[in-house]
């Protein structure tokens, strides 16, 4: 059976064709670099993806902070990981690379913040007034 892939590893976006029998790969054609071949092998044997999404920030200067996985996770676990991320709300301030879920679902990948979010200005002012009084 022939199966077509578009490699997403580098900007070449090679159109690849793999000859497959069951789980065995007989040939791969069309790659301009060896990463294309590796991509097809991974897609057939153990497809993985990184996730990028956002989480709610409580008292933040903006309501959401972007997050991502630190390593690719199995493709069939994406929806389960998204459910875990949906449960999280973080308190401002948050910093880039702050881990919000460590080793999510025991997959060996953390969920980290990719955009810093400061405290909402009016909250900051009220807190200073409380401390000063």
TrEMBL record:
Which portions of this protein are annotated as coiled-coil regions? none
Q: Which SUPFAM superfamilies match?
A: CPE0013-like
Q: The organism sits in which domain of life?
A: Bacteria
Q: Which PANTHER family match?
A: DUF1667 DOMAIN-CONTAINING PROTEIN (PTHR39450:SF1), MOLYBDOPTERIN OXIDOREDUCTASE, 4FE-4S CLUSTER-BINDING SUBUNIT (PTHR39450)
Q: What is this protein called?
A: DUF1667 domain-containing protein
The opening ranks of the lineage are:
Bacteria, Bacillati, Bacillota, Clostridia, Eubacteriales
